[in-house]
Design a protein that fits this description.
Blueprint (H helix, E strand, L loop, with lengths): L2 E6 L7 H14 L3 E5 L2 H6 L3 E4 L26 H13 L4 E6 L1 H12 L4 E5 L15 H22 L2 E6 L6 H10 L3 E3 L7 H13 L5 E6 L5 H12 L3 E5 L11 H19 L5 E6 L2 E6 H6 L6 H10 L2
Parallel strand pairs: 1-2, 1-4, 4-5, 5-10, 6-8, 6-9, 7-8
Antiparallel strand pairs: 2-3, 10-11
The chain binds adenosine-5'-diphosphate.
């Protein structure tokens, strides 16, 4: 193995830069030439390659987003696209590829591996929705961003005795809502993995008001539905002033937390080590705080489940 390449694909996540840095620096440390591919698989098809040196990843560990940029590329999902990508990597003498992204990106990585280009995945997504790993790069920062925003909203909620329905990201997963909800002491957390009844939600709200709470915060995962609809239901059943905030892309940007920087550094470095060991079709995963290699295939076939113990605990602690 002499030359490897790295790309970021799918949604951006804070910590991706720290992962790129780790791939480049560990690769060079181990005597490899390392190329960056800009804009994900679309950059691969457009041959947007750049040779990386130690300095090209200087001063990025603390920056959100991804210096290699990211893109979605429909062409890469086709036979022709995959064939073209494989040929480009072969012609350029790339012996291994590190794909930093989510499950969609891993499908591309696995398809390349099956065509003879060894590829390893590094889980980078704020949603934490990848089976096989306890944590993905970007999740911790997104949760912290959500917490900071909710803490600010709480000041207004308390001052005005209002109910706030706050929608957080997560695609189909409730992980961000669960972790942020527990951390801010939300009265109610709604996640797609747990069915809820609006009657019970309203009942809990009324009880908390009856025992003197001056505000209520409901954290709703985007996978549950629109926060505006839930707020309208609460308003119509209680007559209370109910405000909605959709945190949106605020959660996704900004400087990565220590947890994400350390995780990304460890995972990026391990991806290079795996390629050097001759492993491919693997994803670097965190399980019980140890890094392990799991089959990309398994990671994609499995179903992600958030830690529902947090859900139960949050309900107990917010009585
Ligand atoms: P994420 O990686 O965050 O889940 P997407 O699902 O949008 O994001 O996937 C990112 C990119 O990965 C897609 O735009 C496409 O280029 C590539 N990809 C997704 N699915 C496949 C597939 N089945 N085969 C090949 N490439 C794929």
């Amino acid at each position: 193995m002499k030359r490897i390449a790295v790309l970021t694909s799918g949604g951006d996540a804070p910590g991706m830069n720290a992962a790129i840095r780790a791939v480049v620096r560990n690769g060079i440390y181990r005597g490899l030439k390392v190329y960056g591919i800009r804009k994900g698989f679309s950059g691969l098809l457009n041959e947007d390659f750049v040779e990386m040196d130690l300095r090209s990843v200087a001063d990025i560990i603390h920056r959100g987003g991804t210096i290699l940029q990211t893109a979605r590329c429909e062409e890469f999902k086709t036979e022709e696209g995959l064939h073209k990508g494989t040929e480009i990597l072969r012609r350029r003498g790339i012996d291994g590829l590190v794909v930093i992204g989510g499950d969609g990106s891993f499908r591309g990585a696995l398809a390349l591996t099956r065509r003879g280009v060894p590829a390893v995945g590094v889980p980078g997504t704020i949603d934490n929705d990848i089976p096989g790993t306890d944590l993905t790069i970007g999740f911790d920062t997104a949760v912290n961003n959500a917490i900071q925003a909710v803490d600010k909203i709480r000041d207004t909620a308390t001052s005005h005795e209002r109910t706030f329905v706050i929608e957080v990201m997560g695609r189909r997963a409730g992980d961000i809502a669960l972790a942020a909800g527990l951390a801010v002491g939300a009265e109610t957390i709604l996640i797609p993995e747990e069915p809820y009844s609006i009657d019970e939600v309203v009942d809990r709200l009324k009880k908390s008001v009856a025992r003197g709470k001056r505000h209520s915060i409901l954290l709703v995962a985007e996978g549950v539905g629109q926060a505006t609809d839930i707020a309208a239901e609460i308003r119509s059943r209680t007559g209370w002033e109910t405000r909605v905030t959709v945190l949106g892309h605020l959660q996704r940007g900004g400087s990565p937390t220590a947890v994400d920087r350390v995780l990304a550094s460890r995972m990026g470095a391990m991806a290079v080590d795996l390629l050097l060991e001759g492993q491919s079709g693997k994803m670097v995963a965190l399980q019980r705080n140890a890094l392990v290699a799991v089959d990309l295939d398994e990671a994609m076939k499995g179903t992600h489940r958030p830690d529902l113990g947090l859900y139960t605990l949050a309900r107990i602690l917010s009585i």
